[in-house]
Write a structure and sequence with these properties.
This protein is mainly α. Helices cover 76% and strands 0% of the residues. It has one domain. The longest helix has 18 residues.
């Protein structure tokens, strides 16, 4: 449940970027792509 609340902003952001009629799989792929990009953008310690 906590993880779901954490992901909510990212999902809403993807919702704004991707058309509502996009297939669920496409939305899921976009979300994971954005998450991966965000992780890569962070400086590694």
């Amino acid at each position: 449940l906590a993880r779901r609340q954490l992901d909510q902003p990212a999902l809403e952001e993807a919702d704004r970027r991707i058309p509502r009629f996009a297939p669920q799989g496409e939305l899921q792929a976009a979300v994971s792509r954005a998450t991966r990009f965000r992780r890569q953008a962070m400086p590694k310690k």
